[in-house]
Amino acid sequence: MEAAMYEGNQMQMDTEPPLDNEMEQDMMALADDEWLALTENEPEESPSVITPSIEHIMTGRPPNMLYLSCDGKYLTDYHVLLRKQIQFFEANEEESRAAAQGRNKPIVVGQVGIRCMHCALVPPDKRTRGAVYFPSKLEGVYQMALSMSNTHLCDTCPHIPKDLQQQLIFLRDMKQVVSGTGKNAWALRAGALGVYEDGYGLRYKSTLLG
């Protein structure tokens, strides 16, 4: 069954149409306001060149949800609810050490990943399977979020409220289809929140503007 779900998701990813201008403009306008609220007291500095780097640099940004207030206008109910359960975060020393186990490519301090917001305060070595992922590209956020939903949020997460978990499972199993809600839409939304890829992994920009 999971294989069939993956094939269905993969088909949607491969045939996804480009985003229309209205969706992109709505999302970026709302994202600007939401980002400014997050960065009101942050220094206005940003990487001058986006190139591969393994330097241990953290912007100090707090974790923030994947969800944007314009999501409900364009995404499925399942994707909207799922995005409210996941947050972007920067890996610190503890996170990078825990995530590096069993990986060929290490996770470095400052690298941005996605994690279950219900397990955010749980020590990395105490989390259940699928609570954290580190996509190497913006387009990977979509598929890894779906994997987190199937293996963790809808299954092994001990901290998500049961009624919320059941609602997520119900919406997932409805298999609602809306055009243009796949990897490209999720990648653009990640970029609107100041996440970029530098050839090594995902990072936070220090500021959205400029």
What does this structure look like?
- With 210 residues, the protein is an alpha+beta fold.
- It has one domain (2-37, 56-204).
- 43% of the residues lie in helices and 10% in strands.
- It is built from eight helices and six strands; from the N terminus they run H-H-E-H-H-E-H-E-E-H-H-H-E-E.
- The protein has helices spanning 2-14, 21-38, 71-74, 77-83, 93-100, 140-156, 162-174, 183-192, and strands at residues 64-65, 86-90, 112-116, 132-133, 195-197, 202-204.
- The protein has a four-stranded antiparallel β-sheet with strand order 1-2-3-4, with helices on one face. Strands 5-6 form a two-stranded antiparallel ribbon.
- A hairpin with a 4-residue loop joins strand 5 (195-197) and strand 6.
- The N and C termini lie far apart (46 Å).
- Residues 1-17 and 35-52 have low confidence and may be disordered.
Overall spatial form: globular
Task: Give the neighbour order of strands across the main sheet.
Answer: 1-2-3-4
**Domain tally:** 1
Tally of separate helices: 8
Element order, helices and strands?
Answer: HHEHHEHEEHHHEE
Structural class: alpha+beta
Mean pLDDT value = 79
Describe the sheet with the most strands: 4 strands, antiparallel
Helix content: 40-55%
Distance between the termini: 46 Å
Strand tally: 6
